[in-house]
Specification:
- This protein has one domain (about 25-210): CDP-alcohol phosphotransferase transmembrane (TM) domain (Four Helix Bundle (Hemerythrin (Met), subunit A), Up-down Bundle), CATH 1.20.120.1760.
- About 80% of the residues lie in helices and about 0% in strands.
- The protein has 7 helices and no strands.
- The termini are far apart.
Length: about 210
């Protein structure tokens, strides 16, 4: 449904941008990625504003960031505007938003039952980012490309964070749904991390043998 909506609202005149800008690092998909990064300070500020319904505004900002994440990838593929810079900055923007959201929610819920899956997700992001950097230096970044499990994990993660940001601690039933989704995301996080490590293990072992 989201894809149909995007196709409906994007003018047909934008379907094929001039060839001269297709290789430009500052194309629209990358601009959307920068927008996602610029939303982070606003996201943090709104989180701490002590006014009613600010938690819903905070969730809406996070949702907007998630929409730009989908949209920049869709447009980059549709318009053939994929760039090495975009491939680098897009996951950085995603991880920044997710880690900041988790850090804020750890403060809100202040409980081991929330901190544990949040720490697992944050730790995984650090490990996989380092692994991808290592494999990129070897020219084998495709070996640790995003898998189907990783995409499902990201979906569950976004759902969980949207629910937990939009809920108040006293809304126990809604918080419970968000926490269950977060634990599922944490489990998929470990699964996808092990899959990436398994794919990269021969090169990691070779690197360790040379040291």
């Amino acid at each position: 449904m989201l894809a149909l909506w995007v196709r409906a609202v994007i003018p047909r005149t934008m379907a094929a941008p001039p060839r001269s800008i297709r290789r430009d690092a500052l194309n629209l998909p990358n601009a959307l990625t920068f927008l996602r990064i610029l939303l982070i300070p606003l996201f943090v500020l709104v989180f701490y504003i002590p006014l009613p319904w600010m938690h819903l505004v905070c969730a809406a900002i996070f949702g907007l960031a998630g929409l730009t994440d989908w949209l920049d990838g869709y447009l980059a593929r549709k318009w053939n505007q994929t760039t090495p810079f975009g491939a680098f900055i897009d996951p950085v923007a995603d991880k920044l938003m997710v880690v900041v959201a988790l850090a804020l929610l750890i403060e809100r819920y202040d409980s081991a039952w929330f901190t544990l899956p949040a720490a697992v997700i944050i730790g995984r992001e650090i490990v996989v980012s380092a692994l991808r950097e290592w494999m990129a230096e070897l020219g084998k970044r495709a070996s640790v490309a995003v898998s189907y499990v990783g995409k499902v994990k990201t979906t569950m993660q976004i759902i969980s964070l949207l629910v937990l940001l939009g809920a108040l601690p006293e809304w126990r039933w809604l918080v419970g749904i968000g926490v269950v989704c977060l634990y599922v995301a944490a489990g998929l996080t470990l699964w996808s991390m092990m899959a990436y490590l398994k794919a990269a293990w021969p090169d990691l072992q070779s690197g360790m043998d040379k040291r």
